Fold:
Amino acid sequence: VTTLKDVSMDRIWLKQYPPGVPADIDSAQHRSLKTLIESGLQQHAARDAYVQMDKRISFADVDRLSAAFATWLQHQGLKPGDRVALMMPNLLQYPIALFGVLRAGLVAVNTNPLYTADELRRQLNDSGAQAIVVVENFAHVVAKVKADTALKAVLVTGAGDLLGFAKRTLVNFVVRHVQKKVPAWNIDGAHRFTDALRDCDGQTPQDTYPGPEDVAILQYTGGTTGTSKGATLTHRNMIANALQARAWFEQVNIQYTTYYIALPMYHIFSLTGNCLLHVQTGGFGVIIPDPRDFAGFVKVLRKYPPQVFLGVNTLFNALMSTAGFDRIDFTRLVASIGGGMAVQAIVAERWKKLTGCTLSQGWGLTETSPVVTVNKLLPGNGFNGSVGLPVPSTDVSIRDDEGNELGINEVGEICVHGPQVMAGYWQRPAETAQVMLPGDWLRTGDVGRIDSQGYVYIEDRKKDMITVSGFKVYPNEVEDVAVKHPDIFEAAAIAEPDERSGEVVALYVVSKNPSLTAEQVIAFTRQHLTAYKVPRHVYFREQLPKTNVGKILRRALRPQE
Structure:
């Protein structure tokens, strides 16, 4: 592992802040996420907080139900600092469970519902979780691993449990017996989540006083470089990023606006950008349990016109290709933010043309809670290919492999300093030391540059870089060119071993035209790329592997992995 030199603060890049956005935020205004959440719930009590399948619940409902869940957890003997896993897609149950965990002084462990038994066992044991809330579709996975973990309490919920009697009965029946999405399971002593809420309804949890440096969230990374690791996000980290996001939105009015919660809230981008930003602003959150049902998604968009929309490139692209998208009312859409993966220029251009709202790209990592940079949101700002400017109280530095700071537009590793940077990897001091530099700077593993105006550009992940005869090729650049072909829907570029040049570019393509050939794709890219960047091999796929958030998984395309 290369040890970088101390990162100093001697040279701060020129910073720009849009009108109304402060240079710094004061994370000390809240002692913990508990106080931030309770403040928002009480301030906006009379307003509707969420809607799922036309079932609305108010902030007062969320306040009461999350207090009941916090009380129930405390009655189980859980103590401040104990970990509780949440294994759910987007449902009304998620914010209630999350807020309840935090109000009880506990630590939330966000868990991907699609985990295999081995992945779940590993995460539960690594985190030491003593309780889990799981949607019944995945209870059979918990049943397989419970005996091998420290779990003391398992709470199970049905997808329709909070939708009201008639809709609850119908939805749960369809999911269980028509779609057959609930495999048989048996967990001794399992509790129903709704029973826990009912048993403690109206009760107030014992007050807890977590401090700014106490752990709030264990957010596990995607494991793209090995076994998944838990980023230790403190109350201070999460408060800071929630306030940084709120400050950035001072450019536009998002008080009481309609948020679309399509990205799963157990993912850090959605947790901060939707869940925590939403509770501060009194927003109306439209919950989309299955964002891959694009036809159903468009119907909901037509019913509840969007005002704030967070997504990833693949989601924006797929929605725009869905029938009925052109009949959505976008007149009140004030902010569209793309993150999680690179937003492609052609997708941004189409989004602006169809919605009238600029798709503002942002960037961050699990380890930064996650937001580091975002582009301006003001009307008239076009897509510029950058990931934007650092949010308040955040510094970005570009370093070479020896730790030397690089100049304007020089490409190197992006390093980040700010109150949102994690405390480290959970119980992994050696791996923490590899990424945390003196002065609490984080090595991100992303390669990029900063221009003369302070805008940050991501070239690619260091691990995804392709080296052709010593020349560096960034997959994003190849993919951006490929998707400009009118017959290409999606593309992913990876390295393929080659005897002569070490590596060559291999391009995986999802085509709109079954007659498209590899030769035609190569000829098209040759018009726009230097010779060594042109794909040597083109492979066609019906679909590309993606994460649960919709980010294309290049690593899944590599045969050796």
The mean pLDDT is 92. The two ends are 22 Å apart (CA to CA).
